[in-house]
Specification:
CATH topology of the largest domain: GMP Synthetase, Chain A, domain 3
Radius of gyration: 18 Å
CATH class of the largest domain: Alpha Beta
Number of domains: 2
Shape: globular
CATH superfamily of the largest domain: RimP-like superfamily, N-terminal
Helix content: 10-25%
Number of helices: 3
CATH architecture of the largest domain: 2-Layer Sandwich
Structural class: alpha+beta
Largest sheet: 5 strands, antiparallel
Strand order of the largest sheet: 8-7-6-5-9
Order of helices and strands: EHEEHEHEEEEE
Length: 173
């Protein structure tokens, strides 16, 4: 689906999140993330959804896409052409918001810094705490406990190596 126009103030992502949330709620879904990315000459509005049981299928994506596309056409929050994509965040989902970090405490993460720190650019660690006050997480690595400032990272994703035993992630996925 393509859309265009808008520019009525506020960030595109937060406006789309606000439009998508009631639709997702009505369908028994939650919005994991909304991104607005440029790839080549195209812009992509991606809305990632999940279900309480964790399994999003094509029917869920289609059920979300139709009313969301209509709502976006009606609200018109985007002032340029874009392609709407609705999908699942996947196993290696990126953690961005407070609720993401709190949901996946005690789970293994793959963390990549924007710039190398102490000779390390990327590492695997278990999430042990989230600190809203200073925007950091605490993780347990092979070398011990480490504090990571979230804004210093390129990404923080769930580590999705199938060889990890289930007990690595007791409360999450």
């Amino acid at each position: 689906m393509a859309g265009k126009k808008g520019g009525k103030g506020g960030s595109t992502v937060s406006r789309v999140f606000d439009i998508a949330k009631p639709i997702a709620d009505e369908l028994g879904l939650t919005i994991w993330d909304v991104t607005f990315d440029k790839e080549g000459s195209m812009r992509y509005l991606r809305v990632l959804i999940e279900k309480p049981d964790g399994y999003v299928d094509m029917d869920d994506c289609e059920a979300m896409t139709r009313p969301l596309s209509k709502a976006l056409d009606d609200e018109d929050p985007i002032d340029e052409q874009y392609m709407l994509e609705v999908g699942s965040p996947g196993l290696g989902r990126e953690l961005k918001r407070e609720e993401h970090f709190l949901e996946y405490l005690e789970c293994p993460l793959r963390i990549r810094y924007i710039r190398e720190k102490d000779g390390v650019k990327e590492f695997i660690a278990v999430l042990t705490a989230y600190n809203k006050d200073d925007g950091s997480i605490t993780v347990e690595t092979e070398d011990g406990t480490k504090k990571v400032i979230i804004s210093d990272t390129a990404f923080i994703k769930l580590y999705d190596d199938e060889e990890l035993p289930d007990e690595f992630c007791e409360d999450g996925d």
